[in-house]
């Protein structure tokens, strides 16, 4: 049965003026994902089957994926979509088509609060700058209610860049069509930490 989903995400931008800092990790390795490593890390558990399919598709579209892991067990993931890839799929194509955009970031519960999010962000954005230009700006977004992610973005050096309001029309097992509007001037709601504002 078709259904419509309304959502508001907060947008952030990391401008080229922000210098990246190395985030040392103890007990973890970070690897760039390719077809073989995606199958190695994500084909073993039934719960990861959707990741296996999604990540292989992301690679096929030219996206860059990174994984923090302990031996063969994955702990966290981070992806960056380049311009023209059609990703991330949760945003309307007209919003992200000409930008580098972070997506599919996830840290397993038992590995949280160990700096994996920041370390993967650093590796991914450094890779994009090395491959393309030090002048590249990288965008990211998060759910309005995800206060931990909002604080992590701001601590890393991302600046608020408005709100994206989307409507997704989904027909299960057929297709999802997403429309939306990016209000770049919209203020981010204040968190308990008191952060707010717009990117300059």
Defining traits:
200 residues, alpha+beta, Aminopeptidase, 5 helices, Acyl_CoA_acyltransferase
Task: List unreliable stretches of 5+ residues.
Answer: none
Instruction: Summarize the helix and strand pattern as letters.
Output: EEHHEEHEHEHEE
What is the oligomer described by this structure? single chain
Q: What is the strand arrangement across the widest sheet?
A: 2-3-4-5-6-1-7-8
What is the CATH class designation?
A: Alpha Beta
User: Helical element count?
Assistant: 5
- What's the CATH architecture? 3-Layer(aba) Sandwich
Shape: globular
- Helix coverage percent: 25-40%
- Rg, Å, rounded: 17 Å
Instruction: State the total count of DSSP E strands.
Output: 8
Describe the largest sheet. Answer: 8 strands, mixed
Concise structural overview:
This is GNAT family N-acetyltransferase. The chain has 200 residues and is of the alpha+beta class.
Describe the fold and architecture.
InterPro entries: Acyl_CoA_acyltransferase. This is GNAT family N-acetyltransferase. Residues 181-200 are annotated as: Disordered. The structure is a single chain. This protein is α+β, with helices and mostly antiparallel strands. The protein has a single domain, classed as Gcn5-related N-acetyltransferase (GNAT) (Aminopeptidase), CATH 3.40.630. Helix content is 25%, strand content 34%. It has helices spanning 35-42, 49-60, 93-96, 116-131, 147-156; strands at 3-14, 29-32, 64-70, 73-81, 100-107, 138-143, 159-171, 175-183. A hairpin with a 2-residue loop joins strand 3 and strand 4. The longest helix is centred in the middle third of the chain and has 16 residues, at 116-131. The protein is globular and about 40 Å long.
